[in-house]
Amino acid sequence: MNTNEKKSLFEREGFQSLAASLICILLGLLVGFLVLLCINPAGAGTAMVSILKNFLYFPRPAIALEYFGSTLVKTAPLLLCTLSILFAYKVGLFNIGASGQYTVGAGLALYLALAFRMPWFVCLIAAMIGGALLGALAGALKAYLNVNEVIAGIMLNWISLYSVNMLLTNVKESSTTYTSPLRTGNPGALIPSLGLHHLFSENRYVTIAIPLAVLIAAAVWVVMEKTRLGYELKATGLSRNAAKYAGMREKRNIILTMAIAGCLSGLGAAFLYLSGIEQWSCAQTAVPAMGFNGIAAAFLGGLHPIGSVFSSFFIQHITSGGSYVDKMVYCSQISDLISSIIIYFCSFTLFIKHCMKQYRQKRKASAGAAKPPKQAAAAASGKGGN
Predict the structure, then answer these.
(1) Which of 2, 80, 156, 346 could pair covalently with 296 via S-S, beta carbons 3.0-4.6 A apart?
(2) With contact defined as beta carbons under 8 Å apart, do 37 and 315 qualify?
(3) Which residues does 328 contact at the CB level (< 8 Å), separation at least 6?
């Protein structure tokens, strides 16, 4: 019985996803450590420890809790971008335009907050609608013109970035390239606090966005696994022609999928910027990395909404931890490089799971071939009787 239980454990999808994710994390840390050794062997160990410790880098518990809260604040938008990637991927689409949808969501939320002094919930809705429209545009190009969603998403990323930069120039500070702070420009646009100031050492950025993001992850799982809509969307992703033959509106499903994915990305941007923790720079020339980090977090989480909660936190943890690398020993870009290496290896989870399944099948085949015919027949009849 114990042997059978062990075998059933290794064959479970959840265990394989967890094992593949841990292997990718270890490989990423190993290669990152080798890079640090090549640059400066003396400080390699300290630098890697700083990345992994993140907020624990600070010896005082009060400061550590404050920065832990900041990590959670930035995890919420990353989780929404992760869910956006995951949702589209489940339907056979690769939403690389999540960064553009995230950008549009940030632009609309901040513009309505600062230019028209709208309350936070109106800004959230605007961000969701903006992201959804941009996602629906990529979906319509895919559905009606057969334009690959990857190409459409990449082009729309840059269009979104420069459009939002021009829009938010109207609400930026006069002396800098950053938008005006919400706490002075429109406090009513700030997402309500979670009410846990004492737990996070008076960190005022910890808002209700954190539990909302987790609830949305659970809702995505319910929609994809327990509803007719989720079944139709996944069926469309598996085969558009088969879905059409079965009476499903495959073009509508593609557009709807990308619209929902865009809505999630836009909402993630609103969660970040309406917390007040960051300001948008109207001079930035690169789309936000949150959408691309969501790709790694989605695969690291085994393409499961609940797994994405933990993988998003880990990705944000090492990304934030990279800022504590000693800049006197390494250049300022080394923290981003190490974080990127770890994130890159996180994209190999599906490949590692495939290798694990292949290895398991070969072990089973070799074990079956090694048994004498009589024993194999007896074992088969015994399993049938049980």
Answers:
(1) 346
(2) no
(3) none
Vertex 264: Cα angle to 259 and 269 (nearest 5): 125
On the 0-12 / 13-18 / 19+ scale of CB atoms within 10 A, 192 is exposed
Q: Any alpha helices (H) in 147-202, and if so which ranges? A: 149-168, 182-185
SS3 label, residue 172: strand
257/91 Cα distance (integer angstroms): 7
> Sign of the C-alpha dihedral, residues 174, 177, 188, 263?
positive
Q: How far apart are CA 260 and CA 351, in angstroms?
A: 27
Collapsed DSSP state (helix, strand, coil) of residue 281:
strand
CA distances from 214 to 78, 165, 183, 204, 222 (A): 11, 30, 26, 20, 13
| Backbone torsions φ then ψ of 172, nearest 5 degrees | -90, 165
- In the DSSP assignment, the letter for residue 65 is H
Contact 186, 176 (CB under 8 A): no
End-to-end CA distance of the chain: 13
For the segment 125-159, what is each residue's pLDDT rounded down to a tens digit? 999 999 999 999 999 999 999 999 999 999 999 99
The backbone torsions φ and ψ at residue 174, rounded to the nearest 5 degrees and listed phi first, read -70, -30
Mean pLDDT over the full length of the chain: 87
Using CA atoms, how far residue 30 sits from 335, 342, 345, in Å, is 15, 9, 11
pTM comes to 0.87
Three-class SS state of 325: coil
Phi, psi of 125 (to 5 degrees): -65, -40
- Do 100 and 157 touch, CB atoms closer than 8 A? yes
Q: Residue 42 has which token pair?
A: 């003396």
Give me 81's structure tokens. Answer: 């971008």
CA distances to 137, 233, 242, 354 from 238, rounded to whole Å, are: 22, 9, 8, 19
pLDDT in tens, 338-353: 777 877 887 787 788 7
